[in-house]
């Protein structure tokens, strides 16, 4: 801490540096603090997240409101107030007094507060590796859904965080209902856990959390009972119900879609005919009647009527059990797709045996791949055609995955951040409805502050733990010979040497004369495969070469075959619109075995099938296409300014055939946005395209769909099977820079 204080004021004066011969002043400041949340809380002096005033270090939401997911209700913490309390804690005269302050406020003194510039409410970032990949994604799959290879797929509706209490006798329950309708909240609280729990279950309310939370759920229901929609609940219905509950006017309610308003009237036994305006007026009149008892009776009668209907229908499909959602069928589909999927080498695939007893723990980036690539491919083609609850579960999961993908982009802007926030809020609203037995966790709450950090510190790759775990690895790989007293000096010497060396390698003279050497060194850098491989690759590339391609040439020169040569001419000529090149470009070229474009390595298919699948643009094609790199070569480019012509990289690509219009209408994937991907026919066009590096957008994950079965509703509203005209492959663009290619491909 003392070092940090000095580094800021007065700073350190260096007598001489490479760029400043007369020396310069250097200051260092600690700004973002990156760690997993437990470590962070200790470091900044917060009590456990269960403390009512220490749920969150960014906003002042109390722990008992943790289920609140309306962003607009979060008030940022006051930095000065935090510092004031921490000072009182530090200056307290006894341990007992200190503990008293911590108990009351949830705040302790932290040594970091010595740094006057440091803001404990804004500089402690929520680490996305722990929060999203190991947190939200893992929790969703393991806890909300549950995984069980020995069981049929369930619908997870009966999964609870802890064992449910046994149902009390009818008399106790009747007494509970009485307290609910006519008693006070504290009377209701005394009814005990089993009664509260089953009162919630009976009304389709959330049943997770402390007794106080259950009373709150019941209390809200009495104030304005949101009817039980079950699987019919949609994000829009939820929004509209909330709006109605707030007492908004009929003109506001009338802005929702008609089918939403019809559903809201129907579930309340109201007339569901007429215009949107009439429906909205009916709903607001009903809501403002303020007669909770009447509302209760009506809605209960609607529910009973629905239950009776169900009993009458014999041809109803057998209901799924309410336990683990990822059962035998889903795991089989996952394994099939896993074995048919080609991934680029920078993607860390989850084990094929995921969900079986044999496999070990998944790493953070394996959770990311599983949830953002494998599961969407398998679940959209299976769950996507099942009953409404499973479809709702799928859509809700895709919302989460898209939000996670948007947060993880290497380039971001306000539009993407805002979209991630909307998706995350929608995810949590619907997840609360779908998984009523699970509490909202501190991680869920913290995830809602990620937008704040993205706006403050930019894209996550510079402030998430992957990078720092890589630095840990780097430090561990330094040779210290266990001489402990000298360890700091060794670090210093090694770091300086490496910094000087890198500086030297960057100078133009050295670059010109030692190109193979610096390339070999860069290749060595990539041996570090821990953490996010793409991050590692991008960060090891020099900043100034990240946009230019680095190609590995094979020495011999070849004569281009006529089809490739004519495609090359076509590409060169579309670039130079003024006049065709004179003299004609050379017919010879030097083949390459791999090339790095914007920090990602691409290879021809003979070298690596996974690294050859690319999304690309071409002047003669509309929108992004999916294709395969057949060959890559360096070709003598145009000479400029009297200098020798520079070799330019070209890629020879064949394109996957697009679905025809009729088949495209059955493709279930595009409706799921950037996470869904799309289908193509499993067939490469004969036509050859020659690309320049700037035409390449990103890799894609390619999955052959051998026995793809799709469904549609026929005129009578019955499901019928659809077969596409030819075998298909699934294309999932892997643009982790800006999602441009994927977003376009989804259109
Ligand atoms: Zn907060």
The low-confidence parts are 292-315, 526-548, 741-747
Q: Helix/strand/pairing class, anyone?
A: alpha+beta
The neighbouring-strand order within the major sheet is 8-9-10-11-15-12
Name the hetero compounds present: zinc ion
Number of domains: 7
The gross shape turns out to be: globular
Largest sheet: 6 strands, antiparallel, barrel
What is the straight-line distance between the termini?
53 Å
Q: What's the number of helices? A: 29
Oligomer: single chain
Tell how many strands the DSSP assignment holds: 15
pLDDT averaged over residues: 83
Helical residues, percent: 40-55%
The whole-angstrom Rg is: 31 Å
Strand content: 5-15%
Topology overview:
Blueprint: H1 2-8, E1 12-14, E2 24-26, H2 37-44, H3 79-91, H4 95-105, H5 128-145, H6 170-182, H7 185-189, H8 193-202, H9 211-223, H10 235-245, H11 250-253, H12 258-267, H13 276-288, H14 292-312, H15 328-339, E3 341-342, H16 364-382, H17 388-407, H18 414-434, H19 442-447, H20 450-457, H21 465-476, H22 487-506, H23 508-513, H24 515-525, H25 533-540, E4 550-553, E5 558-559, H26 562-575, E6 588-597, E7 600-602, E8 613-616, E9 625-636, E10 647-658, H27 661-664, H28 673-676, E11 678-691, E12 696-705, E13 710-713, E14 719-722, E15 728-733, H29 740-746
Antiparallel strand pairs: 1-2, 3-12, 4-6, 5-6, 6-7, 6-9, 8-9, 8-12, 9-10, 10-11, 11-15, 12-15, 13-14
The protein binds zinc ion (ZN).
Report on this structure:
The protein has about 750 residues and is α+β, with helices and mostly antiparallel strands. It has seven domains: about 1-30, no CATH class; about 30-125, no CATH class; about 130-150 and about 335-460, no CATH class; about 155-225, no CATH class; about 225-290, no CATH class; about 470-545, no CATH class; about 550-745. Strands 8-9-10-11-15-12 form a six-stranded antiparallel barrel. The chain has a two-stranded antiparallel ribbon with strand order 1-2. The protein has a two-stranded antiparallel ribbon with strand order 13-14. Helix 5 runs antiparallel to helix 17 (about 390-405). The protein is globular and about 95 Å long. The structure holds zinc ion (ZN).
